[in-house]
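Re: that chain you flagged

S.,

Sorry for the slow reply, it's been a week of failed gels. I finally had a moment to sit down with the sequence you sent. For the record, here it is as I used it:
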Amino acid sequence: VQLQASGGGSVQTGGSLRLACVASGSIIGIKTMGWHRQAPGKQRELVARVTAGGGTNYGDSVKDRFTISGDYANNTVYLQMNSLKPEDTGIYYCNVVVLPFYSYWGQGTQVTVSS
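Prediction finished late last night. Pasting the structure tokens below so you have them in one place:
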């Protein structure tokens, strides 16, 4: 399984970005698709994930600002990020969990928010 992420970049505080991640390869039964991020000197943390049934989870720091959506027919997950803050800066990693429980990670895309 390969994950290709796109959409990172640099914006000013209050700006918006949209990330996309496409999964390809021998994929049977995606359970969840999501995004994690890692800021310099910090541990990787959950940003958001969406299940095949449409359920969503968000990290506390991004609730009400970020929206995740999944296109399971095309193995694609999107992350709309609004009202970005400098503390949102980091490398964003796409993650896909496939039945029975295999976890795959993308290469990461940089998001930089300047004040």
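What I noticed first: The chain has a mean pLDDT of 95.

Talk soon,
D.
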